[in-house]
Amino acid sequence: MDRERGTLKLSLTVYWGTGSILLLQSLPFGLWWFARLQLFIGVFIVGIFPSLGSAMTVNTDPSVRGRVFGLATTSQQLGQYDGPFICQSSGHLLGNILRILRGRA
User: How many CB atoms within 10 Å of residue 33?
Assistant: First the structure.
């Protein structure tokens, strides 16, 4: 019971911290502000991965556990590659749409 309570406390702290830092990232106080926030985001996100690994271990059958971890790693790597590309593409598309709507095409 204490282990579950500790895991829940850690998970809530990490999720709350990550969300708070991501919200602070929207405040434009300069490059050094942004760099420090990136450091803190990394610190909090690192706390999420052990929780996810533990949840996957507990909730999967041992015969498919290797596949589940393989798929999780693959999806993480695809997200790290495709995420910035999709954000840049959607930002470019939205910028063009706004420019056309304003009549500056």
Answer: 13
